[in-house]
## 1
Amino acid sequence: MPMQNPKHKQRSQEPTPEQKRYIEMVNRQKPKPPVFKNVVLAFLFGGLVSIIGQALTFFYMQVLDLSPVEAGGPVSATIIFIASLLTGFGVYDKIAKYAGAGLAVPVTGFANSMTSAALEFKREGLVLGVGSKMFVLAGSVIVFGVFSAMLVGLISALI
Amino acid sequence: MDPMMFVKAFIVGGLICVFAQLLFDLTTLTPAHVLVGLVVAGAALAGLGLYDPLVKFAGAGATVPISSFGNALAKGALAEASQRGVLGVLTGMFELTSAGITAAIIFSFAVALVFNPKG
């Protein structure tokens, strides 16, 4: 493997004064996100989805006579169904634009990412599009979740 | 049915989303990185035994955010690992999250069959 020219490497890493001025100018011009408004909306929508989850938890506990933990499965299935359906109607993404993390962080956001990827790649076919692209965003959540849970399980099994 | 649970769910669920929104807006992390971080944090908190007390306190406020996915994965792995050792990590992993993942796959597929992408 040929050695990289160290002089060249250094030059590409350190911006010239002119570049620095340019970067500063760009940063000044870049619109700042309305952080306060975003945070309030995230709080309201995230809280609202949690209230719906809580109402469904009480509902399944009452109707199916389940413990709070047992009700978890039907509750996630229900809100995932609602989120997928709203994504199909194109409603979820419209609201999510304003809600930000408020609709991205709840499990509904996980369902939304899968459904919208499945829809987006429908034109590539059911097998190569819908089937394989469905996990294009949700995949990394599953992979990192499983890997970190494996570490937690291994550590506890070996201690 | 304790009506205070609705208040606690609203506040805790909302605060987790506020934390994520601040990371979206004030750092260079992408939403995907933040969500992955939340899942990993959920798994780590499950390992430390700290996520269940939060669920007990806030109910759906703790189970609705995606961090509960990491918690559920780790709890499934931990429960089986305590009975069968290392092999239990493999067999128990999806024990608690099965409903959510299966539902997400089935409903996403069904919606993709019925609907066409908007805009």
## 2
Amino acid sequence: MAETTEPILEVRGLVKHYPLTSGILFKKQVGAVKAVDGVDFELARGETLGIVGESGCGKSTVAKMLVNLERPTAGEIRYKGEDITRLSGKALKTVRRNIQMVFQDPYTSLNPRMTVGDIIGEAYDIHPEVAPKGDRRKRVQDLLDVVGLNPEYINRYPHQFSGGQRQRIGIARGLALRPEIIVADEPVSALDVSVQAQVINLMGRLQDEFDLSYIFIAHDLSIVRHISDRVGVMYLGRIVETGRDAEIYDHPTHPYTQALLSAVPVPDPEAREHRERIILAGDVPSPTNIPSGCRFRTRCWKAQERCALEVPLLAVPAEFRDVSGPAAHDSACHFAEEKQVVPPEEPDQPGAPGPAGPSGPHGAGGSHGADGPHGSHREDSEGG
Amino acid sequence: MPDQEPYEPERAIAGTGMGGTMDLGTSEAVTLEQPPGPDGADPREKPRSLWSDAWHDLRRNPVFIISALVILFLIVISIWPSLIASGSPLKCDLAKAQEGSQPGHPFGFNGQGCDVYTRTVYGARTSVAVGILATLGVAVLGSVLGGLAGFFGGAGDAVLSRITDIFFAIPVVLGGLVLLSVITSNTIWPVIGFIVLLGWPQISRIARGSVITAKQNDYVQAARALGASNSRLLLRHIAPNAIAPVIVVATIALGTYISLEATLSFLGVGLKPPSVSWGIDISSAAPYVRNAPHALLWPSGALAITVLAFIMLGDAVRDALDPKLR
């Protein structure tokens, strides 16, 4: 469903550098933390783009820039063709209605001094044109119902809810203005595994119901695979590999993606014994001092002289350009080669090739069925 | 995660979130949620906020109850001193100077032959008025300046921080001697003004730090992402979550302001006779302490109890508001 429609969100050359200063009275810039250093991607209507990467790679900074909480140092974020990075005042407020965020930590993202009704209803205080005054309470209750909470909880305070319920409140707040895009910054990583599945499935259901597009940021690869149509892998402020989820997970060509995937826990003990684990040497370099050329070369087992001199572009690598297979997707590596590190998921095994094939079962089957308990819960919550 | 809470009703709610039957859980949770409620009334949909939680704690704290009763008593007698003292604090009879306790004059007489009991009762008014008004002034000025500096940061914040540093460097008593000795007005206002002038940097620092902490919370970012204006962020999200430390420090400071007023009056630069103040009485009784110790002890005792009461109140409030102790 991705490539056919015009992108709703287009990010070009996004850069965020935080200046490092020294001096007490007269501040002098001595360097910069290059949190995000040239990110490009696009998001189609109704699509979910997963962004993965380890801590400190700039995922959250990208999210903050998308919702205009941080101003980019350079680059463009085009929403329906209009660059939103330099907007202010009324125009910015209008854009904010359409791009909303779900935060990582449900314990700090809800104001402890406000009731749930005030937290969700605040959107209507700020954008009074969305809902007439008398209608607001009803709307908040509808939202609570939609996210699977009892509408009677409207007068409760956040500390009276569990983590999963709080995250549902956070999602309801994000939905209040009926946005088209939701940027979810690690929305489930603070939750219990059992609750994670519920929240993910809730988000999948809401996507269909409200025709949402998601930017889904996480460091948990299996969750991203579960919800995403396309995946971008970030390393040190850049996207190093991007493609449909099956392309990335089953046919990674960038060594960093391969190393990340090889660390995913495998539930089957037999498969676990046979798989190869790629252990990277050293730590992530400091974002103040990014290596020349390929930024991954300091930890890469394939690195050669060329990697230090030439910055690899994020494009389909030359060796795959003529083949039309799942390996032919964007990968920023001079020596890209396909390597299967994760045993493929059951439904993908028979007919893997072709981008349309594997994404079907994921896009549709993945976001629904997966776990039993949630299915029953969903019915309960909608009933009550 | 829900199991971390030792709080039974929460677990009941959490259980429903896990996919159980929600309707069943709800009715149960709502009723369980109302233990001996904070205000006893309204048993259905009135859950406890953090403030009412704090109030709930305070009501069970004997330190708070005792100090609050003492303070209440002080406020009442400073508004209506004639309730418990019939005479005038300015009616003195030199013939009775330094005499001890006698019927109708339980605390005896001071060096001028004035009734110590009456003067001690009337002295409360000055102390309480100075304490409360100075604290209000300090709290308002300090939290507004500190809060704005913390919220907006930048050059204004840097300038304000340096100014507070300068004020911190002024020794309070020396500053008082210099500044107040040039003022002739014999009211409480110069003293209050001086205390506000020297006291606001302390609150300003607390407020600044607390606003900086609060503004980094995700819920502030979330409101900003919704398009909230700065004033909404400050008033609805930051202030309610940053005010607790200011309240605590201000309550504790109130006691020290009362003793500061007494100190300045003792030194002769605060209030001057014929005003009535514990500081003045302590000062005038000090030379005769061997002959008439009671004239010194009663006002000093009253001062000590008052200061202690406010500091204990501040302590109790801090315990109730500090989330880390919860």
## 3
Amino acid sequence: MEVNLCRIEVSFQNDARAKIAKKSIERAGFGKISAVSLNDVYTISSQFQEKDLEKCAFLLHNPVTQQFSIGKPLPSKEFDWAIEIGFLPGVTDNVGKTAAETLQDFFGEEAKETAVFSSQLFFIKGDFSKEEAGKIGEIFANPLIQGIYIKTREQFEADSGMDVIAPIVKLHEEPKAREVNLEISDEELLKLGKHGILDHVESDGTEARRGPLALDLSSLHIIRDYFKKESRKPTDIEIESLAQTWSEHCKHTIFAAELDDLEKGLYKGLIKDATEKVRESKGKEDNCVSVFVDNSGGIDFDKENIVSDKVETHNSPSALDPFGGAITGIVGVNRDTMGFGMAAKPIINRYGFCFAEPKDAELLYRAKEKGNSILPPERIMLGVIDGVQVGGNCSGIPTPTGFMYFDERYKGKPLVFVGTVGLMPRLVNGKKGHEKKAEPDDVIVMVGGRVGLDGIHGATFSSEALSSGSPATAVQIGDPITQKKMSDAIVKEARDLNLYTSITDNGAGGLSCSVAEMAKECGGCSVDLEKVPVKYQGMSPWQIWVSESQERMTLAIPKEKTKQFIDLMTQRGVEATAIGEFNDSQRCVVKFNNKKIMDIDMHFLHDGLPRKKLATKPMYPFLKNPSFEEPSNLGRTLLEMLSRLNICSKEFISAQYDHEVQGSSVLKPLQGKGRVNADAAVVRPLLESQKGVGVSHALYPGYGDIDTYWMAAAAIDSAVKNLIAVGAKMEDIALLDNFCWCSSNEPERLWQLKKAAQACNDFAILYKTPFISGKDSMFNDFKGFDSDSNALKISVPPTLLISSIAVISDSRKCVSMDAKIEGDLVYAVGFTTGELGASEYYRMQAKKANDKNATGGTVPTVDGKKALASYNALSKAIEKGLVASVQAVSLGGLGIAIAKKCIAGRIGAKIDLKKVLSVGINRNDSILFSESQSRLLVTVASENKSGFESAMNGIRFSKIGIVSGTKLEITGIAGKQKISLPVSELEEAYKKTLRDY
Amino acid sequence: MVKAILLAGYGINCEEETAFAFKKAGAETEIIHINDLIANPKKLSEAQIFAFPGGFSYGDNTGSGNALANKIRNNLWTKLVEFIEAEKLILGICNGFQVITNLGILPGIENRQAKRTVALSHNNSARYECRWVSLKSFSKKCVFTKGIDLIRMPVAHGEGKFVADENILKQLKESDQIAFKYVDENGEPANSVFPQNPNGSLEDIAGICSKDGRVFGLMPHPERNIFFTQQADWTLQKEKLKRAGKEIPEESAGMQIFRNAVEYFK
């Protein structure tokens, strides 16, 4: 029977999405819109008859709220333009997939080959040109992954609707491996490394290459020598595989390199070194279980369980497709939890975004003459927020904490941090849960999604390739439900049935990395690549091997359990396929249709790349202090500060991320009646236990402009302090590092990097807070052009995110940040000095003075020993129940911390700046907005005054005021009232900046 | 012992905490993957309570709850009707509520036919909303809400706007099927105002029950308010209780809903 294509269109009588779409169009500057409506379209490829299609429509619509039409447009609406947006061939289409599953379940065998493609059809009434209609389409579509089809009303009516389009992938790749000649000139080798293997020569003589391998000349020489010894030419799959395994992404060559006099390099010499020293000094109190050896790091939770944590970045993919990049980031790091030890259950998601200001609408371009524009910051911000929302919410993992930080230097490349905490039993089937080992003869099983061209060379995709290349390969979209099914089936069932011996996730490099990595555990592998289930026919073997298609795990399964495992997966709606065997041959072998196409020595594959030797060169910034008088109206200044992007409310993000799922919420992302964004969150992962997990984070990219050492020190101190504030204890805190650097081939940037890493070493050791996991992303630079074709380079400021995690013994003792009850005393813990360099206050003043270099030179430093004493004392006071609220002081200083406390509690306070312990400050604004580190603001019931004060004995702290009334009243150092503002006004200033999102 | 079965699979994700709440209320619980239930539908006859937990079945694709409802209608319909006719209890929370309205078992089946008459549509904000809301109980016949007047619990959904036509709404009122409405903190009607009514639901309706009160669906999550420390304002409540010299409770109000269900069979 013939396959036919048919469109079913569904529309709501009243569609909230259409109203929001209209708003988005108006916000983009198209003011002439009078109506927007929206149809959901299902294009069905099937052998169905008309009566069957009626049934399809019944299954795909809701008669209470929707109407449908089959093969013709719905009754005409008021519109001038019809704009349809559908996926390009090969792009993950989750709606289409679910629709097809629904039809297959209903019709059974006869619908086996049925495919469904989803699209959305916008009807827009307004007077504008076709070009403008295209621009409107681009508000909702990303041309990298979606097609935009436009018709005028006349055309639409003449054609009886939109065209029927089924985006089916048609490939004509050679299904075999090719030899690659490395006996070529260095010039040709460089081309090979930079632009990839020559695929074919176009009719006009241009070379079509397969995309960057990112292999430098010395690496290519080593590869050439290896194959000389093997007496044969390498195949394309071997070269691609080596390029993946040796990439900066997988091998962290810069952190591993010998750096100046640091023979062991940054990672072993400073980061891992700190952890080793901390573990040694803590002795029996060491809480590390598994560090730096697995997909996540693990620490003690209780007698029966371990918690794991991992934070990843997904910067480049998010720059290209913010939604797709962010969703694959979050579901990807979820797999680092499933791939930790024998598989942990994800219990917390966390996020962190660094963007340029959303109102910055000036476009930049990857090519001259306004070619290939980058996405504007607002678009990136909203897409990334949405991607993490869909990924996290659909996966049923709470997202209780995160941050959004702005600096114009994130305009070329945003930073997107995503992290996941997991929980796993110490013992899995009687063996240590955090250990795993694939055994020779175990079957290699790939589980989850199918393999397509997604994300091939994704991380290194060049701009040229992006403008002209095949969209199916450039960007990936996540399918969180496929992953959720897989996660449930593995973590909640297969693991405890003892069905596998090892597990890892498929991330960067796909199978080429996951299988080769696991093969290290037993000493070799042999893969039959033709067995790998693919999304469509016609892929080359090398593409199947390195594809980064999402939602896949690789497992090692004892032969006798393979059937039971695959049957279980099938019963859970999860695809699982045996694709080869592990062995101890010391070779990584790949076959395709019984022909050996890859055969590389395991040792060479993993350790063949020699370490680099790098040198640094000092750099010192030229920054001056801004010169201005203390503002006469400090109240107005406080309101301005509260409205700053880096300080204001991010409620719109917190409220769209489910932070209550799993029933584990203790301290939430928004606290108090006034719903203020908190710096730390606490969850209780086991419903039957009071044990909690606290999570927080900190970063100070601004401080790095002055000194990256103190930038790193401040981040560590704050990430720790935020957890102390909610009730954690120093000895229970562990850290994660994420370095997002720029231009890491420049010795000056390496110098900054070394200083930051040195601070990590110093403060982790002093605080006894071990690093348990980390990741680096070294080239966050954008090279392009402005609208006048002037070349420009934007590098992100060196950014170090420190994430922190702590096990909290009794979550009932946790403390929130909101001021609570009239008459409570307000204490400031810590010491304030004139450390305003790169502070939010000086950055604001420098901007007002239009002088970029006037952000100050006095960076906040950290007195670690004093901080430690404060934190330990405060922990005791919290433990004793003497504290009613705590807010860590961070960006914006004491003034902002006090304001946030009042807003959260919707209650006023009377504060006396004279009482603030400080030195060298004679200005009220400096006391209010200095960002001196290690300070906390605490409220205490008056009956606990003496208890609190004696618990804090020996610590630098002072009583600075009282919780009172409905206003924040601040008396200055000269005894005059400097600020008197109703809390409602503070709240308005805090919330108005991003309220429209 | 009263037994509650909780559905799992295909993106359902609140089964564990919902099972915990039933267990805490005294029930024996079993979480069953939908494919296992289809393979062994007799399981249903062993249970007195059938719960459709919250989550993201099929990622809300083709409309929230629709795809899972299709699968159930296609594979389990007769067993489900038998379960209802045996005068047992059904609870649908959030996505589970979306599923059972798509199945038509809420507001109720007639002649064993599945007919959809109410729907849960996109929130007015067209955005996922996770926040605490106040609810007031209205129905006198709803088994699950007995003894509850005002209660707080979180919502977390993108498609929770209750929609029905005038006739259906009238019937719901006449037969006392409106179980919960969104109200403000003082128990006054939300009057469609955000965020008290978080999604734009018709007449602030947050949950409805069948004519006999035994099938109950609601958008908010009672299983997320079963402990004192789950509440949005527990740290403030704790300070107030401490200073008044009162004991700090361990449990919270949402438990009543699960207890009502289990007690019903005692």
## 4
Amino acid sequence: MRIKLEKRHEPSLAMLVATPIASVILTMLIGIVVFDLLGINGFEAVVDIFLSPLLYSYKWQDVALKAAPLIIIALGLSMGNRAQVWNIGAEGQYVIGALCCAGMGIAFGQTGGFLVVLLMIAAGIVGGGLWAAVPAWLRTKYNVNEILSSLMLTYVSFQVLGYLVGGPWKDPNGRNFPATAPLADAQTLPVWPESTVHLGVLVALILPFVFWVIMARSEFGYQVRVVGSSATAARHGGFDSKRTIWATMIIGGAMAGLAGGLEFAGVLHKIDLGFASGYGFTAIIVAFLGRLNPFGCLIAGIVLAVTYVGGQMAQTSVHIPNSTAGIFQAMMLFFILASDILVRYRIRLIPSAKAAGV
Amino acid sequence: MASPARLELSGITKRFPGVLANDAVGFAVKPGEIHALLGENGAGKSTLVKMIYGIMQPDAGEIRWNGQRISVANPKAARKLGIGMVFQHFSLFEAMTVLENIALGMDAKIPARDLESRILAVMGQYGLKLEPHRIVSTLSVGERQRIEIVRALLLNPKLLIMDEPTSVLTPQEVDQLFTVLRKLAQEGCSILYISHKLNEIKALCDTATILRGGKLVDTCDPAVETSRSMAEKMIGGSLKDISRAAGRSFGAAKLAVKALSLPADGPFGTALRDISFTVRAGEIFGVAGVAGNGQNALLLALSGEATNANPASVTVDGVDVGHLQARARRGHGVASVPEERNGHAAVPIFTLADNAVLTARDRLGMVRAGLIDTKAARTYAGEVIEAFSVKATGPSAMAESLSGGNLQKYIMGREILQKPQVLVVSQPTWGVDAGAAAAIHQALVDLAATGSAIVVISQDLDELLSLCDTLAVINGGRLSPPMAVAEAKIDEIGLLMGGIHGEVAHAH
Amino acid sequence: MGIDFIIAAIITVVGLTTPILLAGLGELVVEKSGVLNLGVEGMMLVGAISGFAVTVYTFNPWFGVLGAAAGGALASLLFAVLVLQLNSNQVATGLALTIFGTGISSLMGLSFTGRIVMPFASVFPDALAKHEYLRLIFGYSPIVYFALIMVPLTTWFLKSTRAGLILRAVGENDLSAHSIGYSVIKVRYAAIAFGGAMAGIGGCYFSMVITPMWAEKMTAGRGWIALALVVFAGWRTGRLLTGAYFFGILMALELYAKASGFSFLPSQFWAAMPYAMTVVALSFISSRGTAGANAPACLGKPFLPST
């Protein structure tokens, strides 16, 4: 038997939707087998990781809180990836966004209120955008690969964070622990009554619609898609590739910065050395699992948030290590990438004709 | 009974999804014979030779080699048998030396020094000049072809397949190539010569096999046939001439290029040097030349994909546009069709409707308040499909799903229906079947008749001579003085294409 | 500053350089074949834990190195199958490999946390290896010498062997190589596996020589620096060696600045230095148009033969 690939005339919409779902299911099945091999009750672990957070309503707000930053960051990254701009430094932009947000809060002292919180979030957006502007500038001006530069800047951002929370911004009442002082109540994001769900969750629900209109209907979205498909065709059509790189990179950074600001002002209320929790990297998986589609990102963000929350639950219930969630996430990404081919090609099995050599 | 044929095919059939590329094709090539394989683009010539060379396997039929039935598993097996091939698109490695390129084509491991001396010997024997340590990217197209030929000859082939070898050569280089091929044939090597150029086949080949639509039409003696009779067999009908109104006159100058110079774009690009010409309303201006002499750069400089510091270097209807980018120039009525369809003129993975937006959005008002009017785009794509009889499932077909000819018709239509003042097209009929080519030529003539100025850049001299009013030759980034096509002499053009300017000056 | 300090400093630099040199050499070969594998960091981590685990079980660091090479190569084959067989996007698949490698190494490393392995015994007698001055030449782990030998060996392979010629041809023009009759896929499989093995050995240098113990994410982004190194070196082995030492010195500066409590600049400044300098160095190299001339023409593009 031989496998033959036939190019489809139009990408298969059914496969576009079915493959991410199949990827998640396959990951669950493999998880069961692998855990059993490791001597852990595989079925229980997988149910805990993938289903329990959905079954227990008290876990829903946890899922929403984890999903919000993932969705917001993934939306920005998807747009970049559509333009073949590979910003993998969202984690750093998230950190800088949060720091800028904190800085704005500190500048206002104890003063709070709607306007101050708005300014803080705006500072997060601007900070993340500016941090991403550096790789954009280096790429367009010096032709530096943005994959490497954005990632290197992420490591730099961790040091910036370490310096600020361990030095100038250290909480004087924090028993010498490197962390900022807790945010004044008046500077935190509004929260849904009797829950921990903050305004950012609403933002994460609205933004996919905004991004969908931009990507599917606007001339800018068209420009992004053309530049990503062929820089030469883009030039022929009168689109400026460099400007597109700038725009998508900065939008990606701004979204990460927004997520950082929301996480700081809405959930954690302070920044310590453990602030960067990997949302920026996981969002890359969200973007691909969501097929770079804004609504796909919304759903994929929730799925990944479930595995985060479920991973924590399974840690206590069946004692699996905390790194397992990461492996599951990577496995999903592998499957989705492997199944990409099904969208564009039809796979046929052909009985092998004996090709006799001479 | 004479010795068996060197190569004999019978009943060769190859099917691709939706296409029967070869339908029970059979013919024989004798030792020392130069055998032409004639047919239009898409007739199935390339598929057939790919099966002989082992790149593809036939679905049915048999191949005999010196009387013995064989199956060629891969190119390596073909070379082992003594079959060599020179590809139309060279399989060369740009960043490597001539020597490394040749070594890669050898199946046996030969020490570099021995290989070099053998290369020099073969080059001496056939009068092929090459410098073994040059990097390929610095070589001319003719020199690159020589690498392929030397690579094939080093294996002492008994059958040499040449796929459209002259499409990129100057007339003088063609003569040199023919000398080599005749010498080889005399020594007993059979040659399978693929072409659609009838005069070459008459000049070189002993026998011609004609394919049309995957089927064998005839095997004949080119010396007995006329070019016209072979052409009719190839096309399957009588040739249709381009119809144009008699006694046309040209209007005022529409496109004027003055002292246009542009640095080379990248290490493999060609710089434009001091190019000047004028195209009047209603005039079709042809630019002839061998590939890689600045044609691409010229198209980009005219379309606005490459801009110039001097605004007056390009003017349209007296307005300076040299400094403007493509989008702004389109506003002044400049449309263009670059040589590369997929990935330059069109986005392969976009639908035809989305591809309409690429160049027509401003002139046809497809964008309102930053949002794209997808309905308008679909309607326009439908109009183009209808007007240019593009074979496609509709406006939502992907560009890459269309055949080359149909995509070219769509792209030409997309530009022409925008009624441009100036249209610049490169290789308008490259890889397009005769029917589509005729339709494209007719559309260009009709557009010119409405008073547009048209620039046609092509390597196909026959096309330019039949289509254009005025002709100039580009070589090394310089453009020759224009000449009226009615008065142009083919040998003079040939010399210009080869970069010899002096004799032309003498001739004037 | 005494001679002792200088010798100690040089030994530190050599140690810090070795992993990125190994991983960089491997990635250079991979990229020369036309494939961009961004999973270096992940493969290094898998190599780090595999090498460590094998050493714990066999009590033999030589087997450990083999295990690290095998682990890195196995991880790289995951990437290879996706990229070569299923034509998946190389950038995304490389990232996936890094995420996967990070997770799987943590999982594998659970039962090894806190354990220590016997470091490599020197291949030279103590008289040389522990000599006050001669240790500058003889006082390293065998992996260091292996890395240094691999530099001329890789150069020779790429420049002077037929296999190297074919590998470069595949990276330069995969379709031509295919039409001549070379198996692009096989060549790339081999290159990717070699890259994985080298990254794996580079990774085990952390867990078996530098610390020597296992810790999660212990390669701390060095895999990415190795990737940058290949661009920095313009795909030339000689310049890769120079570049690796340049970064080695930067990383040593961080250690010494921390140790000496250099007070007028925060320690985070020095910690950020290698990463920031990578960006600066890349800008310098990339802005010069000639740097890309040696880049393989097919780098990162999927291989799509028409037949």
